[in-house]
Amino acid sequence: CCLSYGCSLRSVIIMNIWFPRIQWRLLAGMLGIAALGALVAGSYGIIHDQITYSISEEYFTKLKFDQFYYADFGLGRRVFVAEIGFLATWWVGFIVAWFLARMAVPVWPFKLALHRSILGCVIVFVCSLCAAGIGYGLGVFHNDDYSNWSVYEDLGISDIPAFVRVAYIHNAGYLGALIGLIVSVMRMRNQKRTEQVAASDR
After folding, report:
1. What is the model's pTM?
2. What is the pLDDT of residues 117-149, one digit of tens each?
3. Angstrom distance (rounded) from CA 117 to CA 115
4. What is the DSSP letter of 148?
5. Which of 8-12, 49-53, 109-113 is the least confident region?
6. Contact 15/59 with Cβ under 8 angstroms?
7. Among 158, 164, 167, 157, which residue's Cα sits nearest to residue 142?
């Protein structure tokens, strides 16, 4: 019986993660925060990719341009790079802000929930930025052996070191965002728990 109850409880938790029960009156606020996160992340992606394009044009012309070919409207390389930057990051901001809003909006008044969600997004941004900086450093101080990257020589890349630096920046940035999200979620959970304990002691 206990085993059956435990399995049922786990099933409910898993279902709530993938198909959460959301009060309709709170949905607009959550989506609004998520949309704001998507807009900010997309804007960051535009600036980010303009900088990395300056480091390695080939990372885009030999790789990213092919991956995002559907977004090329013939408006020039820099515009295309900006489009790629937005498309590659807006969804990260949406997911991050949605997770934080899902935790904050049902618990606190909307202004406070918005403030704490924004603060969580700032933490994610800082972690992503720091990780990207570390990635750049790893690329700069990479040894002279690029044999593990030889597969990209088939793309006709002439400056492998610059290509590797940008690859490190991009990959590290995503990893940093994930770490930042974990930190933000844990921080918000601790805030909720602390305030619940304080309220019960009154």
Report:
1. 0.82
2. 999 999 999 999 999 999 999 999 988 888 777
3. 5
4. G
5. 8-12
6. no
7. 164
Give the residue carrying structure tokens 């790789």.
63
Residue 146 CA to residue 58 CA, distance in Å, equals: 16
- The token duo for 1 is 């019986």
Asked if residue 102 lies in contact with residue 181, where contact means CB atoms within 8 angstroms, the answer is no
CA distance 174 to 172: 5
**How many H helices and E strands in the chain?**
7, 0
d(CA 20, CA 13): 9
Q: How far is CA 39 from the centre of its chain?
A: 12
If we measure between CA atoms, which residue out of 133, 125, 152, 115 comes closest to residue 55?
A: 133
Cα-based angle 111, 99, 96 (whole degrees, multiple of 5): 95
